[in-house]
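Appendix B. Worked example

We walk through a single record from start to finish. Start with the input: the chain for Cartilage intermediate layer protein, nucleotide pyrophosphohydrolase, Scleropages formosus, length 1191.
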Amino acid sequence: MDKELSIKLPAFLATLDKGSSEAKLSPLPLEERSVIYPLTFPLSTPTMRVSGEPLLNLNDSEWSTWFNVDHPGGRGDYEQLDAIRFYYRDRVCEQPWALEARTTDWIPAHSTGEKVHSDPALGFWCNNAEQPAGRNCSNYAVRFLCPKGHPVSAVQASWGPWSDWSHCPAQCGQVAVQVRSRSCNSHSHHWEQQCSGLTVEGRVCKGPECPVCTLKCGMGQVNAECEACMCEDHLLLGSIRRAGGLPAPGAAILRDGPAPRLLTLSDHNGHFRIPGICPDGNTTLVVRLQKHVPLSFVVPHTMAHTSVFHLKLDRAERLQVVKSPENKVRRLGQTAAFCCKVSGSPEPEHYQWFHNGTLLDQKQLKYDSTLVLRNLRMEQAGVYYCKASNEGGAIKSKPAMLTVIGAETPSCNPKPKSYLIRLPHDCYQNTTNSFYYDVGKCSTAACVGQLDSGIRCQDSVQFCCGVAKLEEKQISCQGYKLPIMVTMQCGCQKCVDMKALVRGRAVAADNGEPMRFGHIFMNGIRVSRTGYKGTFYIQVPSNTERLVLTFVDHMQKFMNTTKVLPFNHKGGAIYHVVKLLRKKEPVTLRSTETNMLSLGEVESQDPVAHIQIPPGSFYRENGEVFMGNVKASVTFLDSRDLSTAAAAPSDLNFIGEEGDMLPLRTYGMFSLDFHDDDTGEPLNAGEVKVLLDSTQVKMPEHLNTMKLWSLNPNTGLWEEEGDLRMEKKQRGKREERTFLIGNMEIRERRLFNLDVPENRRCYMKVRTFRSERFTPSEQVEGVVVTLINMEPSAGYSSNPRAWGRFDSVITGPNGACLPAFCDDQKADAYTAYVMANMGGEELEAVASSPKFNPNTIGVPQPYLGKLSYRRTDHEDPRAKKTAFSVNVAKPNPNAAEEGNGPIYAFDNLKECEEAPFSSGHFRFSRVEGDRYDYNTVPFNEDDPMSWTEDYLSWWPKPMEYRACYIKVKINGPHEINVRSRNMGGTHPKTVGQLYGIRDTRSIRDMDQPTVSAVCLEFKCSGMLYDQDRVDRTLVTVVPQGSCKRDGVGPMLQEYLVNHLPLAVNNDTSEFTMLAPLDPLGHNYGIYTVTDQDPRTAKEIALGRCFDGTSDGSSRVMKSNEGVALTFTCVDREVTLQSTFQALQNAQGPVLVSGVRESRRNRRQRGGSVALRSSRRRSARNPKATLGRVSG
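Next comes the structure step. The output line below is what the pipeline stores for this chain.
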């Protein structure tokens, strides 16, 4: 190569210098300027086609195809000739003359700005280490120039037609390259010889004309980019404060616009200085700082040479799911809409929808926060959820299930499922050899009803499977027939809309002292207050995802506590006992000195951590440095104290990077309150250090993942404040310890946590029952089951060193699945302490001693032995029986006996939730005493859809459950059963027909051994289901045994006399009345409560009845308070026939219209029954009950 070769092309000039193997492109005049088209060739120039020019034959040569055998990962992109020959030996000549390189995005190698190397004998390579900071090599493809071996005619005959030219990518005033391609039509093994030449060619194209700058400045001059006006004689000064008033170093100040431009950063004091900004009233600037909401402000119009701003940023609020998509049931061809509402500061920027875990195509479905699926197909059934994201992170909604059924398929199974109810003890059924009768039950699943044509996130009417047909049956008992309604057919009906309620008490964690008249906040708004006894009652707003409540004590006795309270999304009331920690007495700190505060509450043990506050760290709310004395109250919740678990705030969850809610394992929480010692003004603090003693972390794997977190009181989620680093510190003169040290700021959030994310997770299956019979039909919904994760002491699995986490779940129709930490290597790495609570009543766990029965516990051996089940009274019979502990051993997939519950791997939640009753599970049961309920029309109080429109329904109107109790005092040496028999009284559709019976055993007075009392439920008077007319229920109260009525409360007697008709009461061993229509109260001995949930209504009324007041509540029976009836009962010989048997065949009770007529018929008798409760008697042996019934 001893000459310089120049080739004039239409849009550029390519030159080849002497001694060089690389062509250079010289710039042309503006009117001829174009983007460089890369060429690398020796003197023998290849053939190249350029639009508008004939085919140039530059010596007899041709280009190979493009090769891309490497990717830019690792050290870089290496397109080496040896590697290319290894894969494509016949496609590259032995000695290429030249090579050409471009990226896979068609960008020439020399236009990428990257440092690259090329040699036709070696190939092409790009090294990541040689690139600018933060940048790696592009993905390159190369081709080689080789001697031409075939005539043009043969080549042209095998090529297909050229494609259309690609779109010109040039911007205004610029040039670029368009390309087109062709393919080889030959199918022979020598296709390369027949299709020699270019597969892709390019031509130069020009962009559109550039617009003329039209920006006009009323003040200053237009800058070179034509994007803003600049005033050289104006200076903008300002200071930026973060949430809490602390300085904001490193905040970015940008000029707002389509392409925001960075102007400056704030210094270490949060100050900034920007010259040249025009104060024309049209310039908008934006301040951005990590974890804060961007702040926009306008520079106002002024003629002054300096403008000063003082800005305060608000903390960025993490994304929060306000509304998740709802389950939908549709038929083939119908339409379903799923909606996802997410809030945050800033607002979500992107939404993604997933089906069975697979991302859906946004371009195809055109979704945003709403996903609409039209013309549904069977394969579209499954689980859907949305994921929203912004610059601060992402969050996922709860999943929604889409069920798609055939056009003619019944959406509800018309055949009822089996549902057994227990019969009275003298109704033994020979056909089934038991005291149970199958009344049938319909599924509670959603179904397809009549849908309107609108596309809605929430269907205007919800449809559920329910009872479509009832049939009356007569049950044969000993000497009489018992009526009962049996479900014969199920169908799709409108769902019963029930409100979700939460009630309970807020009390001290140490001694149960109530938080009187405290405030309860939701999303910063006060929604309720606690009563004198700490009671509270809240109706959960519709569409609530997580019920996050903050309890604030205005008397400053207790620490402000944020709780995430589980509730029943289907409706109904859930009872919670909220435990509160007492505030520590404040100490005085000098703000000009270094202050050290210890975090630890367990005697004889070292503190878990220390808080170090340097001098000058306290600030007022306006950002002013505070230099006086500080009153500091530091309350530490020590996880080594097992009694504090129930008082822990929130539910120890956070949102991960991918938007999933993940658990934390705590090593302690602390609340900090700082106030001016003189004025009481709240103070903030910056540059605070937390020093965690590493010896307190017994699991070494937690040392590297420990973080500092703060609680968001609105979402109840923990948000990361910072990492902790290892550092050795001198403690005393000789002892050196390693601490985990982190920095924090005390601003508007005052509750912090030392936690680690824990990914060793499982689920535990628990079921709750009405009695110890543990039958499927006696499962109870709405029970709060709580699991506390324990970290055992080394070698002593039964002696926990600390608790790490707690979770509460509400039981449903198939029990509950509680999240728990577990381990697959060590069975006792984590243990769990489990308890259950319903309406303030603690349920009883299955005994583990002296008898250890796996069948009763619900878990088979040998897995039960590995779990080491222990009830709390296992070693001490005097202890409570209301909890159990187990090792949470992750099931071994290779052990068949461990694959069927009660512990499930974290990925098998659905398997846990849908597990059959025969699968392993742990059990709790209610301790009800002697109590028996019978309804002629069966109704499950846990399932509102089991309510049916029938005149004999105990609860005549859903969503308005009215519970009535009468208080009966018994003078006698024994606790006895008392029955209420409830029949239709004045309604023509029900008169003389049985609504139901209630049996309850009296409770002995602790101070009077010969006195007991009972709160007996009866059916309230009122409208029946048709809401046409009222029925005054005919209620007969009959104590079992030899009893005599001593008296009726004077106010009750007066009411009954004044509200005719009056029931006849000739028999002094019982009492009959037409139940009052009015709610009355404790002065009458009648307790009535109406609520949207039947269990809540009964529990409140029962609590008032026990207390003997109209507004109180008690679990202790007060025998002398608020009594309606008094009986004296003595021992008597038991007969063989019950009153119930005798009265079934006797003449029914007679009603009269006045007092005078009732006296003439005083000898007539009202029907009643006095069966003894059947609790704890054998369901298989009728002989156990014969001869034990008395009238």
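Two observations about the output. The first strand starts at residue 5 and ends at 8. The mean pLDDT is 82.
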